[in-house]
Amino acid sequence: MQETLQTLVGGLSLGAVYALVAMGFSLVYRTMGLVNFAHADIAMIGAYTASTFYLTVRLPFAAAMAVAIVVTGAIGLVIERVLRPLENKDFDLMLIGTIGFGIVLQALAIIIWGTTGRAVPSPLDAAPFTVLGIRVRTYDLLVMAVAALAVVGLGFFLSRTKRGAAMQAAALDHEAATAVGIDVGRSNALAFAIGAGLAALAGGLVGPMLYVDASLGGALGIKGFAAAMLGGFGSIHGAVVGGIAIGVLDSYAAGHFQGYSVLVTFLVFTVAIMIRPMGIFGERTVSRA
Amino acid sequence: MKSRSAALVTLIAGACVLPYGLGGYTIHVVDIALIHALLAIGLGLAMGVSGQINLAQVAFFGVGAYGVAVLTTHYGYGFWAAAALAVPATVATGLLVGVPALRMQSHYLGIVTLGLALGFINWITNARITGGADGISGIPVPTLPGVDLSSEYLYYYLEVAVFALGLLFGLFVVHTSLGRRLRAMRDDSLAAGAMGAEIPYLRMTAFVLASLYGGLAGVLYGGLIRYVAPETFSIGNMFILLAMVIIGGRRSLVGCVVGAVGLTLVREWLSDFSTYAQLGYGVVVVLMVVFAPTGLAGIPARVRDLYRRRAGHHEARAELRPFTPYPPAAPATGQPVLLVAESVTKQFRGLRALDAVSLTVRAGEIRGIVGPNGSGKTTLFNVISGFYRATSGTVGFAGDDTTTARPYALSLAGMARTFQNLRLFGQLTVRENVLVALDRTRTRAIWQYAVWQPGVLARERRLRARADEVLERYGLTDFAEADPASLPYGIQRRIEIARAMAARPRLLLLDEPAAGLNGEEVRQLVRIVRSIRDTGTTVVLIEHNMGLVMSLCERITVLSGGRVIAEGTPDEVVAAPEVIEAYLGDSDLTEAGLPQPPTAEEVRRTEEAPS
Predict the structure, then answer these.
(1) Any transmembrane segments, and where (chain A) (predicted)?
(2) Scanning every residue of chain A, which has its alpha carbon at the shortest distance from the alpha carbon of B107?
C-alpha cells in the first residue's frame, strides 16, 4: 500500500509535466488540425534555455522560465509560418514537416549547447517531507501547482476571452470563422505560440527532475503525445488526465520492470489505444484526420 | 523505350564494375548505402505507396540484424540458417506492429509505431540476450562456396543482387494488382473499400512488405558489419530514414533508393560536420515538404509540366465520346427481392438521421430516392453500403443479412456505388481507377506474388484488356492515362459510374449522379442508367433533378426528416399530399419547376428520340 502510494506520488509530478506537453499538442491540434512532432524538441529547447538563464546568467528560476517561454513561442511562430501553405491540406506532409523541424531543433541544440547534457539543481532548497509515511519532494509540489495553474489559465483563456473564443471557432470550422471576420492565420499562429510556450514550461520544469540533453525531447515528447492520445486528442481535460495516467503508468512500470519500463509503458499504451482509439474524452467528430 | 533499356544496361554494367574504381573505405560506404536503400524501399512501400505511417521501420531493421546476431552467436546457427529464420521473424514483428493500423491511421499510427520502436530499443539495450548496450559482436562471416564474403568488395555483389531483386519485386508489386489496390487505399480508403479492396488485409500487407525489406536489410547489415549495437537502431536514425524517403520521393521506389543512396553518401562526406549535416537535412526535409512534396522523383514531371505550359503545348484534343449501350440481357423473371431495409434507424448523438426507414427493392428495378436536403438519403446509402452501421434495424442484400457487413464484403457480394462528392483515386490514372474495381480477386490471392509471378502478369493482361473495354464503352478511351482531378466535372462523374460498373455489380447505388451535369450530359446519363438496368443490374439512385427521376425511375421513395413519407410510381408520389408539403411547403409547384408533367415528358421525348 505504502509502496503503491509512493509510486503514485512519484508518477503525479512527472504526469503533470506530461500533461503540460500534451496540452500544448492538443491546443495546436484542435486549432489547426496539425500534429506537431517538433513539439517535444521545442520542450527540449525550452529546458536548455531555462537552464542556461538559470545557471549561467543566474536569473531567478521564474524569470529564466519566462525567457524560455518567449524564445520557444517565437520558434513556434516560425514553424507555423513555414508550414502554413500545408494547413488544412495534406495532413501527413505536415506531420513529416514538423519531424523535419524537430531534426533541425536537435541539431541547433547540439550546436549551441554541445553534446554533453547538464543536471539542473532544484530551485527549492526545502528538504522533502513525509506525509503518512510517503516522501514528498517540495519541487514535485511546485511542478504540480504550476501545471494546475496552467490548466486553469488555459481553460480561462479559451472559454472567457475573445481571442480564445475566436480560436475555438477557427478550430471548429476555419471557413466559417473566416467568414465572420476571424483572422484564422493569426489565431493559428497564436495557438502555436501558446503551445510552444507550454512546451517550454514543461521542459523548464522537467529540467531539475531529469537530465537535460538533446535527446530529452524524445522521451518527453513521445510520452506527452501518448498522453494526449490517451486522454483524447484535442481535449484539454483529456490531456491532463492522459498525462497523469501516463506518468503513473511510467512510474509504476519503472518500479516493477526496471529497465524495461519504456517497453511496458508503450505496450500498455498501444493496447489501451487499440481498445479506445478516440481516447477517454475524445470525440470522433473533433478529429480532423 | 530503347533509350530506357540502354540506360538500364549501362546502370547494370556500372553497378558491376563500380567496385574496381573504389577504395576500401568507399566500398564500405556503398555497402551501407545499399542497405539503407533496401530499408527505404520498405518504408516507401508502407508510407508512400500504401499511406501507412510507419515509424517502426528501424525496429524491423533491428529485428533482422539482432535475429541473425542472436541465432548465430547464442544458438550456433550458421549465417544462412539464421538469416532464413530472422527474415520471417521480422515479418511476424511487422504483422504485430501493423495490428494498430486496423484501428487508427495517420498521426495516431505514427505515434503508436514510434512508441513500439522505442519499446524495441528499450528492450535491446536492457536484455541480456541482446548484449545490452554493448551489443553483440562476433557474427560469423556468411559463407558462399568459392567466394570470400569477408571482403567488402565481394560482399558488395551479394548486396547488389539482393537489392536488385528487392527493387524489382517492389516495382512489380507497385505496378500490378496488389500495388494498385494499396495506392487506391492510400488515396481514399473508403472508396477503395467500396470497390472491393479488403482494407484490413491490405493494411497488414503494407506492414508485411515494410518488415520484409527491413528484415532483409538487417540480415545484410549483420553479415557486413558482424556487430550489432542499439545505437544503430535509434529514433534519430529512423528520422534520417524518413528524410531519405521524403527527399527522394515517397511515392516512387526509385526515388526512395536515390534518396537513400544520396543521403548516405552526403552524410559520409560531411561526417566531420555531422551536426551541421543534420541541420542541413532537417532543413531540406522541411523545404521538400513545402515546395516539392513529391520529392526528387517528382521533379522531372513538374519540370515537364512547366515546360508544356510555357510552350503552350496542346495535346491532340481529347473528347468524351458517347456511351455505347450494353447488349441487353434477357429480362429477369419473377423479380426476386434484392435489397431490403427493415426499420433502419441511424442516430448521430442527438440527431436521428434515419427513423425506422423500410425499403424493398426488387431485382431489375430502377428506384429513385428523393427528399429535401438533410432528409437522410445519403445516410441511407451509407448504411446500405456498409459505411455506417445502423443503430437499429436490419439490411439484407441478395438474401443475406448484411446489417454489419463491411463495405468491401458488400462490394464482393455484388454491390457498387458512386459518391455524391466524387471519390476518385486522385493519384491513379483513369484506367487504374477502373482497374481497381475490375479486379475481383481476394487479397489472399497475393500468394502468387511470392511463388508464381507469371500468374500475376497473366491476370494483369486480362484485366487491362477488360479495362479497355469498359473505357471504350463509356467513351473514356481518350482519358485513359489522364489524372482524374484534371478532368472536367462531368467526365469525372462518368468515370465514377464506369468504375462502379467495372465491378459488374448486381446492385448499383448512384448518389446524385446528375449533380452539376449539363443537359446533354443528363441525357447521356439517362441512357447509361437504362442500359445498365437492361443488363440485369438493379439501380437505386438519389437525385434532386426531379425531371430525371420522374422519367427514369419506375418506383420512387420519398424521404423527409429521416422517414419514408411516400413510396410508389412517379405519378402516385407526385400526387401524395405529404410529398407536396414536405417538398414545397406552401409554395407553388410550377415555381419550383417541378413535376409539372411537361418537364418529365420533355426528358422522356428527347430520351426516346434516336440519336
Answers:
(1) 6-27, 61-79, 91-116, 136-158, 189-212, 224-248, 260-281
(2) A35
